[in-house]
C-alpha cells in the first residue's frame, strides 16, 4: 500500500498527526515498511540496550478482548517492549518506544500504546530469563486517524526558575503532543540553570517520563545532556 505522506512528514508533523488508534484494517504492512521499522527497532535496541520486537500477523494477543471490551479490532501486528530488568527499564522503553511510534507515523502507519487490554500470555515474543515485558504497541493501518487528546493549559505544567528560553517552550509544545496513560498528563516540568526535570506520577509514570523526554528533545533540538 503506497502512502505518499511518508516521504514528507517531519518529526513535529508526526507528533501533530499521530493519535491513538484501536481499530485497524486487515491490510498487511508492506515489506519495505517492515524493513524500515526493523532497522529503527535495531537501532533503538542497540542504543537503549533493549530487546524490542516487531510481531506481524499474530492476532492472538488481542482476540479475547474483542467481545469483552470492544476496544480493539483487527490488531494483527504489535511491537513488544522488552528489556533486562533494572530501575531504568520502563523509562528507556517509553523513550525508544515513542521513537518507533513516531517513525511508524512518518511511514503512514497508526499505533496505540497498550498497557493492559491484551493477553500477555498469548504475546508471541522472546523474553530471556533476566528480561521483562512491560507493554506493547498495536500497529497497522487504522480505520481512522484517531482524535487529538485534550490538553491541560501548558502553563500549569511547568515552572522556570530562571529565564524561559525559546528552546524550552518548543520542547514543552512538543511534549503537549505526547501520549500519556489515559491522556491524564500527570507530569510537571521544571527548568533551572538550563537543566530540565520531569516529575511524573500515576499509572505507567516511568514509561510516560520516557515518552515525554523523547518529545521534548525533538521539539527543543536538545540532547539527553539537558536532563537533571
Rg from Cα = 17 Å
What name is given to the CATH topology of the largest domain? NADH Oxidase
Determine the structural class based on helices, strands and strand pairing.
Answer: alpha+beta
The unreliable regions are 1-8, 66-70
Fraction of residues in β-strands: 15-25%
Largest sheet: spatial strand order: 1-2-4-3
Average pLDDT level: 92
Shape: globular
Quickly count the helices. Answer: 7
Order of helices and strands: HHEHHEHEEEHEEH
Task: Tell me the major beta sheet.
Answer: 4 strands, antiparallel
The name of the CATH superfamily of the largest domain reads: NADH Oxidase
Number of domains: 2
Proportion of helical residues: 25-40%
Distance between the termini: 44 Å
Name of the top-level CATH class of the largest domain = Alpha Beta
Summarize the structure.
By secondary structure, this protein is α+β, with helices and mostly antiparallel strands.
Task: Explain the overall architecture.
InterPro entries: Nitroreductase-like, TM1586_NiRdase. The chain has helices spanning 11-17, 31-48, 60-63, 65-69, 89-106, 166-175, 205-220; strands at 53-55, 78-84, 110-114, 131-140, 158-160, 187-192, 195-200. By secondary structure, the chain is an alpha+beta fold. It folds into two domains: 4-140, NADH Oxidase (3-Layer(aba) Sandwich); 154-226, NADH Oxidase (3-Layer(aba) Sandwich). The strands form two sheets. A four-stranded antiparallel beta sheet has the order 1-2-4-3. Strand 5, helix 6 (166-175) and strand 6 (187-192) form a beta-alpha-beta unit. Helix 2 (31-48) packs antiparallel against helix 5 (89-106). The longest helix is centred in the first third of the chain and has 18 residues, at 31-48. It is globular and about 50 Å long. Residues 1-8 and 66-70 have low confidence and may be disordered.
Amino acid at each position: 500500500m503506497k502512502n505518499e505522506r511518508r516521504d514528507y512528514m517531519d518529526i513535529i508533523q508526526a507528533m501533530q498527526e499521530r493519535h491513538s488508534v484501536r481499530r485497524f484494517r486487515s491490510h498487511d504492512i508492506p515489506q519495505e515498511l517492515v524493513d524500515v521499522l526493523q532497522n529503527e527497532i535495531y537501532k533503538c535496541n542497540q542504543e537503549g540496550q533493549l530487546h524490542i520486537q516487531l510481531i506481524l500477523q499474530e492476532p492472538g494477543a488481542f482476540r479475547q478482548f474483542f467481545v469483552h471490551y470492544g476496544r480493539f479490532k483487527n490488531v494483527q501486528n504489535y511491537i513488544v517492549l522488552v528489556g533486562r530488568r533494572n530501575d531504568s527499564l520502563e523509562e528507556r522503553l517509553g523513550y525508544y518506544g515513542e521513537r518507533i511510534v513516531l517513525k511508524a507515523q512518518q511511514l503512514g502507519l497508526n499505533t496505540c500504546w497498550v498497557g493492559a487490554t491484551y493477553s500477555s500470555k498469548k504475546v508471541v515474543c522472546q523474553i530471556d530469563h533476566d528480561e521483562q515485558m512491560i507493554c506493547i504497541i498495536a500497529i497497522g493501518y487504522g480505520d481512522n486517524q484517531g482524535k487529538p487528546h485534550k490538553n491541560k493549559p501548558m502553563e500549569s505544567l511547568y515552572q522556570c526558575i530562571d529565564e524561559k528560553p525559546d528552546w524550552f517552550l518548543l520542547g514543552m509544545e512538543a511534549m503537549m503532543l505526547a501520549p500519556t496513560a489515559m491522556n491524564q498528563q500527570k507530569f510537571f516540568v521544571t527548568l533551572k540553570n538550563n537543566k530540565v526535570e520531569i516529575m511524573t506520577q500515576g499509572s505507567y509514570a516511568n514509561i510516560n517520563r520516557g515518552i515525554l523526554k523523547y518529545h521534548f528533545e525533538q521539539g527543543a533540538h536538545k540532547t539527553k545532556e539537558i536532563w537533571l
